[in-house]
# Entry
Amino acid sequence: MEATPSRSGPDLRDAHRFAVEAAQAAGRLLRRGTRSEMHVRAKNDSGDVVTDLDLAAEQLIVERIRARWPEHGVIAEEGGEYAVDDSWVWLVDPLDGTNNVAIGLPAYVVGIALCDRGSPVVGVVHDPVSDRTWSAIRGQGAFVHVDGPAGQPLRTPHRPVPAAPVLAWTQGHEVRRDDSTARALKVVLDSTARRVLQLWAPLLSWVMLARGDIDGIVGYRPESVDLPAGMLLAAEAGMVVRALDGGCFDDRYGCPADRRSFVAAPPETIDRLVKLVTAAQWIEPQVRQLTPISLTNVGW
# Structure
């Protein structure tokens, strides 16, 4: 896809700056809010939660988008869809890592993506804790913003191929504990990797991959709202994203959950990671026969 819009869409550099500033403004709101008492409630029966900070940060971002580009569609994590236009759509995750914030763990970010006919062309991830921002424009590279909206090219240092990789794992909220594919993948990763991170903030994992801090990410039926911004950031930083079977990955946000599973890694190790995750298919029949432990049976 070209780096400049092919139709009467926004100038991508302008949209990029707008998204960076909006994410940073939401980050300031979140940083202030996490210093005081917040209201936390369950969002669904999967264990996911939502806070008043999620809602306030989302409102800030969505209002800015609708004021600037009222003709664009918006899909937000907490508020759903606003006047969706199938051509230009903004995806907003106002607080990726809500479960971390709820228990006082300072690991959360803000994510914004602009998609052209489903594929991300602008992606922004802002970390309110470090007050740093990472962003990307399709075909124009990835950037790091240390102070304000101005950014510098993100240069990922070369990492030697590890004997045992450090990986991140992410899965969608609707994945059940007895999902045999997820369990088989976890068994293979835990048995092979030096460490498997489960950060409860997928966008933070994408930032770590783009920076070269970790060796790869495996995602199983991940959520659709936060995936495009992080994936674009990693891809523009030189990482490779593939489907679980090693085939081409469809980066359009509207894909069903079973087509959103992925592996992501540097070019020199992506084949090894694909081989690792495909090994899970050989143990899945055995995993399927195992009964997950129910906490109700042990008095929880």
